[in-house]
Amino acid sequence: MSLQHEVENLLNTLGVTAHGAEPVHSPVDGSQVATYAQATPAEVEMAVAQSCTAFKTWRMVPAPRRGELVRLFGNALRDHKDNLARLVTIDCGKPLSEGLGEVQEMIDICDFAVGLSRQLHGLTIASERPGHRMMEQWHPLGPTLVISAFNFPVAVWAWNAALALVCGNSIIWKPSEKTPLTAIAVQAIFEQAVRDFGDAPDHLSQVVQGGRDVGATLVADPRIALISATGSTAMGRNVGQVAAGRFARTILELGGNNAAIISDKADVALALHGVLFSAFGTTGQRCTSLRRLFVHDSLYDSFVPALKAAASSMPIGDPLDSAHLAGPLIDEAAFAAMQAALEEAKALGGILSGGERVTGNGVYVRPAIVEMTEQSGPVLRETFAPILYVMRYNDLDQAIARQNAVGAGLSSSIFSTDVRECERFLSASGSDCGIANVNIGTSGAEIGGAFGGEKETGGGRESGSDAWKAYMRRATNTINYSNELPLAQGVTFDLG
Ligand code: NAD
């Protein structure tokens, strides 16, 4: 069966079709698999107006009841997990096991959000005034815009949507223009949950398809209360500035330039495994992909050849075939960016192995390992491709300093069995990233923790822990149950 037929069948099982003026090409083999329609300006305007109306109703629904919708959505995802995962793979090219993992992540965050719907609690705070009580409440915030990137075409939306829904917000999703099909499918699954729920407001969660122009229109709209934007740092710089201009709240989840340190006290076999998955799994197309590796001098001459051998024999090909550990790059532009970075690294003295194109349809490449003496040029920025820059180190403090000496601050790890080294890495003067791991790679986070990074990664946090607070507004309430009107800080205002 051609991919085009498979896409039609997968969408048919959900009772939807994709059609419009824009072609959709699958990175799996480069073929056109569907068409889709971009939203017109009038449709964008209508979506925002409808989202405002839906919010006014949804915010008054008790939070545990809102959780019931998310519970039903999680169950609908369980029913459609296999089909949606195949569509994820066809849409963005990640291996099917990772497509299944991505849908599982959606289910997991739904479970988390259902529990959260009964725990959106504030504090009771001691008042300094007699006969007074002080407390804080968390209220729904408003229409929430979710802008997502191609490489996690469904999970990133779910991280945001599950929390936003239990927090009482309406949602507009602007998916990546590179992966429109999965958004159509997820919307159909969500609408099934809405039907089972019974009395959710219309247009509670909508998809608005289109490119950066559509995204920019939505970002500028003063009726959107919260913008959760996932993508490149260049995108976030633009979105952040526009949002700041109108004091909108943002959650920015941007690019990473993640590093790992391989200590001379590492469990070498474990480190090798962790490095391979982090650097070359998902074809290096995760925000948390490992891009820089600092290897202790005493291990370097054995570890790096072993890494090169393992990388060169990694099975690469059709991501729907479970024999392959990595699929294609998203498109030709990604390949051109990869080659440009490799050329620049070579010109700076980098020694390259791998990185060549694998013949066949689709943009398949061998993982690239570049040995560098200096951390310069392309090593300092994110190239969204399977390139690992490898450098020697002698002194842990120096390795941590070099790890931190880049713009991005998303993910980091150390491989060591020495507790002092590990704790040093995790301490206030250790890794400056939002994610710091020990004896696992930089990628593959769980939903229970707050996810995000510092510096040019944008500072946003989403998913677990207390990330839900970004989706609500906090009101501090002081209640006077006395017959007096004492003022705080001893201030007097005596009417005589
Ligand atoms: P991208 O920045 O090209 O696009 C991401 C999304 O932003 C798309 O939906 C796009 O249409 C939209 N967009 C672009 N410019 C915009 C603008 N000015 N206003 C409004 N919307 C705009 O990113 P991509 O190529 O799809 O994804 C790869 C990038 O995303 C990498 O940099 C990766 O590190 C990052 N990423 C970050 C995270 C994270 O959680 N930190 C997760 C996944 C991907």
TrEMBL record:
<keyword id="KW-0560">Oxidoreductase</keyword>
<dbReference type="InterPro" id="IPR015590">
    <property type="entry name" value="Aldehyde_DH_dom"/>
</dbReference>
<keyword id="KW-0520">NAD</keyword>
<comment type="subunit">
    <text>Homotetramer.</text>
</comment>
<dbReference type="InterPro" id="IPR016162">
    <property type="entry name" value="Ald_DH_N"/>
</dbReference>
<dbReference type="InterPro" id="IPR029510">
    <property type="entry name" value="Ald_DH_CS_GLU"/>
</dbReference>
<feature type="active site">
    <location>
        <position position="253"/>
    </location>
</feature>
<dbReference type="InterPro" id="IPR044638">
    <property type="entry name" value="ALDH7A1-like"/>
</dbReference>
<feature type="domain" description="Aldehyde dehydrogenase">
    <location>
        <begin position="22"/>
        <end position="474"/>
    </location>
</feature>
<dbReference type="Pfam" id="PF00171">
    <property type="entry name" value="Aldedh"/>
</dbReference>
<dbReference type="GO" id="GO:0004029">
    <property type="term" value="F:aldehyde dehydrogenase (NAD+) activity"/>
</dbReference>
<comment type="similarity">
    <text>Belongs to the aldehyde dehydrogenase family.</text>
</comment>
<dbReference type="InterPro" id="IPR016161">
    <property type="entry name" value="Ald_DH/histidinol_DH"/>
</dbReference>
<dbReference type="InterPro" id="IPR016163">
    <property type="entry name" value="Ald_DH_C"/>
</dbReference>
<protein>
    <recommendedName>
        <fullName>aldehyde dehydrogenase (NAD(+))</fullName>
        <ecNumber>1.2.1.3</ecNumber>
    </recommendedName>
</protein>
